[in-house]
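Thread: Newbie trying to understand structure tokens

Hi all, I'm a second-year student working on a class project, and my supervisor (Dr. K.) asked me to get a predicted structure for one chain before our next meeting. I've only ever worked with sequences, so writing a 3D structure as a token string is new to me. If someone could post the tokens and maybe explain what I'm looking at, I'd be very grateful. Here's the chain:
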Amino acid sequence: MSNDPAAVFQRGMELLLAKDMAGFIALFADDAVLELPFAPPGQPRRVAGRAELHEYLINYPDLLDVREIRDLIVHETRDTEVIVVEFTASGFVVATDQPYELRYIAVLTIRDGQLVHYRDYWDPIAAQELLGGGLVRS
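---
Reply by user tm_fold:
Sure, no problem. This is what the structure looks like when written as tokens:
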């Protein structure tokens, strides 16, 4: 697996688009942390360890059918293990077949080819509106 953070992120997006959540989750280290600072009340702001990540992410394609990742910008940092990415995800809300489009900014730390920390910034109000107030997963 690549040690290049941008390549690891790109692979993650390919797996997400392929709806291969097991493969996506496998990109995370056993002790990885996913932080969701803007998560709405009742939703986790921190998911730690691969088992919790699996529980949180495995059914993502049942909620959102992501068809495209675009407007991708990768910002390198002084720390060679850390990148900041901006992108737009679009597709459909599975329950309603309504269009889905949301802008994301994420800070990723990749060590030894694995995601060890993923801080995900997204608009929970827009997400809840798109999902009709339902469960929000970034």
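A couple of things are worth pointing out once you decode it. The mean pLDDT is 91. The chain has one domain: 5-130. Feel free to ask follow-ups in this thread.
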